[in-house]
UniProtKB/TrEMBL annotation:
It is a multi-pass membrane protein. Belongs to the binding-protein-dependent transport system permease family. FecCD subfamily. Its main location: membrane. Keywords: Cell membrane, Membrane, Transmembrane, Transmembrane helix, Transport. It comes from Pseudolysinimonas yzui. InterPro entries: ABC_BtuC-like, ABC_transptr_permease_BtuC. This is ABC transporter permease.
């Protein structure tokens, strides 16, 4: 079984490389294979070189954000044992977005590290609020109650974002595309700022894999096996919130990546978090890069923001999951 899983991981990594090359090659102007190789080697000049120079940081950002959102979703599902958990559905992305918008509108926030800090704080507050509301009443935090609480919170926070932005035309114009979620306009400076935070969050959740496996057995049995349930859940949730907050700060709220990818990856490598989390990161990066390429190609010479493409993919998948009677908890 480990050999099969390793083969899947290798195949996923290979597909990811091909998607990254496609992301660099396709856009408003297609680049031939010869031009692409020459540009990557630094031997090309002119339009081809300029196109590659603009698309490479965009591709890298899409890889990082896709992996971060997928890891965040997989970890939230494991921590809450809720198959419907996702940064967007649970309102975590909306909390990060609202915090960033408030920081910009009322406090003149412009520092990139400030963006990440307030986005992470907003994501954490939203996550705690949704979990608290979903835990009320009989049965505690059931998947359905968490999904409903998250959907209501996400709608309320999105409305607050609009309420803050609408009277401020200058901010609205600047961040209207950020609200949708996208990786256009990526710059190496922004990537350099956010990459350490995404790396830290990824390390936290991957190292929590063994503890997350025991949480799937139930809190009582996990505690009997020597797992410190609260600490494991808190540390893993911290990593997930950091991933979601940093990704939202740099790319805006992008939904459904953290929902779709973990479910598909479980069908391939199973539920062992030690394999699932790395494979989820690869698949999430691939999905966001593919969605970005699709958005650039189908509407050429215009673009469809990647947040819209992932919503078109993820919404039917979410409905399918909800309609499955047997999917109640992980």
């Amino acid at each position: 079984m480990s050999t099969a899983r390793l083969a899947w991981v290798g195949a996923g990594a290979g597909c990811l490389v091909l998607l990254a090359l496609a992301s660099v090659a396709f856009g408003n102007r297609e680049i031939s294979l010869h031009e692409l190789i020459a540009a990557l080697a630094g031997d090309a000049n002119g339009v081809g070189q300029a196109a590659v120079a603009a698309r490479v940081p965009r591709t890298v950002l899409a890889l990082l954000v896709g992996a971060a959102l997928a890891l965040s979703g997989a970890t939230m599902q494991a921590v809450t044992r809720n198959p419907l958990a996702d940064p967007g559905i649970l309102g975590v992305s909306s909390g990060a977005a609202l915090a960033v918008v408030i920081g910009i509108a009322f406090f003149g926030l412009s520092d990139p590290y400030g963006y990440i800090g307030v986005a992470t704080l907003g994501a954490a507050v939203a996550a705690v609020f949704v979990y608290a509301v979903g835990s009320l009443g009989r049965g505690g935090a059931t998947p359905l109650k968490l999904a409903l609480a998250g959907a209501a919170t996400s709608a309320a926070l999105s409305s607050l974002v609009s309420a803050v932005l609408l009277p401020r035309v200058d901010i609205l114009t600047t961040f209207q595309f950020w609200q949708i979620g996208g990786v256009g306009g990526a710059e190496w400076d922004r990537i350099g700022v956010v990459a350490p935070f995404l790396l830290a969050g990824a390390v936290i959740v991957v190292l929590s894999g063994r503890g997350l496996n025991t949480l799937a057995l139930g809190d009582d049995l996990a505690a009997g096996l020597g797992t410190q349930v609260r600490r494991t859940r808190l540390i893993a949730a911290l990593g997930a919130v950091l991933l979601c907050g940093a990704a939202t700060a740099v790319a805006g709220p992008i939904g459904f990546v953290g929902l779709v990818i973990p479910h598909l990856c479980r069908l391939v490598v199973g539920s062992d978090q030690r394999w699932l989390l790395p494979f989820t990161a690869i698949a999430g990066a691939g999905l966001l890069v593919a969605a970005d390429v699709l958005g650039r190609v189908v509407a050429r010479p215009e673009e469809i923001e990647v947040g819209i493409v992932t919503a078109l993919i993820g919404a039917p998948f979410f409905i399918w999951i909800v309609r499955r009677q047997k999917v109640r908890a992980l």
